[in-house]
Amino acid sequence: MKYCAFLRGVNVKGTNMKMADVCQVFKDAGMKEVSSILASGNIVFSSDKNANDLKIILEGAMSKHFNYEAFLFIKSQEETEIFWNSTPFEKNETLHLYAFVGMPGVEHVLMDEFKKASQAENEKGIIVNDIFYWQVPKGSTLDSAFGKVLGKKSLKDQFTSRNINTFEKILKKMG
Q1: For residue 51, with 0-12 CB atoms within 10 Å meaning exposed, 13-18 middle and 19 or more buried, which class applies?
Q2: What is the C-alpha separation between 70 and 82, in angstroms, rounded?
Q3: To bridge 63 with a disulfide, which of 70, 88, 141, 150 should be the other Cys (CB 3.0-4.6 Å)?
Q4: Distance in Å from the first CA to the final CA of the chain
């Protein structure tokens, strides 16, 4: 089965790694047809194992090899297609569109945090198919009230986010 591993916190805040090295860790852990998409930690691969077992195996392998606490989320090709196909927002040159990959139920935690935060003009959050989507004006992603919430240490093992365009690239790689 084809999967994508979405790694959290890769190549930000001092956790730097080359995607070729990450791919090698996946290969050494028994994954097949391994390749990376962008430098933000998106690894496409094949395995006969289920997603829960893969999460344990790959987080362990990544943590050991890179000497850090790895968090990653495994989605099948079919699940990855849902992220792309369920996008509730229209593409717009002035806005970033994000989808959040994470633990079951994290979309409600994110929605609660979003509702508590002040929003910029055209900033929106919505849940579709148990996925939290966020639209934010370009240039204000990290400065927005909600953007700052995303860095909370208490949430670090709960989710990661990707620009919606990344899902398109991942799906093309998956074939």
Answers
A1: middle
A2: 25
A3: 70
A4: 12
Specify the pLDDT at position 14.
59
In Å, what is the CA distance from 47 to each residue of 24, 76, 170? 15, 10, 17
- 37 contacts 6 by C-beta, under 8 angstroms: no
If we measure between CA atoms, which residue out of 140, 130, 145 comes closest to residue 79? 130
The pLDDT of residue 151: 80
Q: Tell me the two tokens of residue 81.
A: 């297609």
What's the average pLDDT block by block, 10 residues per block, for the chain (175 residues)? Answer: 92 76 98 94 97 97 93 96 96 96 96 95 96 96 88 86 96 95
Amino acid at 22: V
Torsion over CA of 133, 135, 140 and 142, rounded to 10 degrees?
Answer: 0
- Specify the DSSP element, H or E, that contains 79: helix 77-85
Question: Contact at 8 Å (CB) between 95 and 122?
Answer: yes
Report the C-alpha gap between 164 and 175 in whole angstroms: 18
